[in-house]
Specification:
This protein has a seven-stranded mixed sheet with strand order 2-8-7-6-5-3-4, with helices on both faces. It is globular and about 60 Å long. The protein is α/β, with parallel strands linked by helices. The longest helix is centred in the last third of the chain and has 21 residues. Helix 9 links the parallel strand 6 and strand 7. The protein is about 40% helix and about 10% strand.
């Protein structure tokens, strides 16, 4: 008999964090490993953001704050939503949390009951299904593979909705594929949601500022009549390289925001006061550096896509946003490694790349669409070129079944 709860037994550790930790352990043991598992920009935190944190420390901002964020940061979040997304939120419609994952966890925890359903397009960010399951609800997956540009259709959405559906999670740009829904595509999904007023929308916009040739759009702006049942989630982690600072935020209906504050008061209490001061500076400060970072990511994207598409057995789409690629590895399944092992799954492929060439990637099964794997290109061009060369070498060493 176990003393652990049913809820904790319904979930698994985050696969992306497992891969990252495994790569780190191998490095510490002396292996030459290139970790492409973590979704973490290698760029530094902007100087003006770091200076704001230092000033907060020196100014004694080391006490408790309001549970769900300082007024200063909430005002900065309001300004960001208005400036970037044409969305107006009051202070009572804004929540600040310990990272975007915490925002999503809080929102689902305060709204889901056993038997409820949450629609999760696949490939999906690894934490969505587990959070839903932790809450006792059921994730309902809609699969959209490489041939569909990794984007669901209105017909698929319509077919997935039942009377038990509580949420649709919409992530654009996507982790793990980098797919971006256009304004027209979002509007088409909105038509379906308009006919189903019991379904709420969680719009995960974390990669908003890492986007290439498609204009960013978010559903509460595209479909203003859905504003009252949309939670627009974002954060400081990706755009401002503040992954470790743990600041996520969202705008949404006041009743939902109040419930999120209630659960947060009994769990983490407030996010770090110093990190909040830094995030306030990030949102209020100059944003022009973001364009240069996007161009850096674009160059890395183009390099990785080109090299993977020159690799025997791989097919890689060009993403429109974020800093991930999601190559299809169907061509590797069934092949044999030099030691004679058969690659039966994409998890086998990921294990082989790590063992043979020291390249850590995350297998597609973790994201709900196989056979594939995810590569994060949020690291230097030199390391990416080395990693892709290793992947080419590893794939070239495989033998036909």
């Amino acid at each position: 008999m176990t003393f652990l709860s049913d809820a904790i037994q319904r979930i698994q550790p985050s696969p992306t964090l497992v891969v990252t930790q495994k790569a780190a352990a191998l490095k510490e043991a002396g292996r030459n490993v290139i970790g492409l598992g973590a979704g973490e920009p290698d760029m530094p935190v902007p100087d003006f953001v770091a200076e704001a944190a230092i000033a907060a420390i020196r100014g004694g901002q080391n006490k408790y704050t309001n549970v769900d964020g300082t007024n200063a940061l909430k005002e900065a979040v309001r300004g960001k939503f208005k400036r970037d997304n044409n969305l107006d939120y009051g202070l009572d419609q804004v929540t600040v949390n310990v990272g975007g994952k915490h925002t999503i966890f809080n929102a689902l925890l305060v709204t889901l009951n056993p038997g409820d359903e949450v629609i999760v397009p696949a490939p999906y960010w690894v934490s969505y299904p587990d959070i839903v399951q932790f809450c006792g609800a059921k994730p309902v997956f809609i699969s959209a593979g490489i041939e569909a540009g990794f984007k669901i259709t209105p017909a698929q959405l319509e077919a997935a909705i039942t009377p038990k559906t509580r949420w649709l999670i919409l992530n654009s740009p996507s982790n793990p594929t980098g797919a971006v829904y256009t304004r027209d595509e979002i509007a088409a999904l909105g038509e379906v949601l308009r006919r189903n007023p019991h379904v709420w929308i969680l719009s995960d916009d974390m990669y908003e500022h890492i986007i290439y040739d498609i204009a960013f759009a978010t559903i509460a702006d595209v479909c203003p009549d859905l504003y009252d049942r949309t939670l627009t989630v974002n954060g400081a982690s990706k755009a401002y390289s503040m992954t470790g600072w743990r600041i996520g935020f969202a705008g949404g209906p006041a009743q939902l925001i109040k419930a999120i504050a209630k659960i947060q008061s009994q769990s983490t209490t407030n996010p770090c006061a110093i990190a909040q001061a830094a995030a306030t500076a990030a949102l209020n400060g100059p944003q022009d550096f973001l364009k240069a970072r996007v161009e850096t990511f674009r160059g890395r994207r183009d390099l990785v896509v080109s090299m993977l598409n020159q690799t025997d057995g791989l097919k890689c789409a060009t993403p429109d946003g974020a800093f991930y690629v999601y190559p299809d590895c169907t061509g590797l399944i069934g092949r044999k490694t030099p030691s004679g092992a058969t690659l039966a799954t994409d998890e086998d492929v990921a294990g082989y790349l790590l063992e043979a060439e020291g390249v850590a990637v995350v297998h597609g099964g973790a994201f709900g669409v196989s056979p594939a794997f995810r590569i994060s290109y949020a690291t230097s061009t030199e390391l990416l070129e080395d990693a892709c060369t290793r992947i080419q070498r590893a794939c070239g060493a495989l033998k036909a079944a």
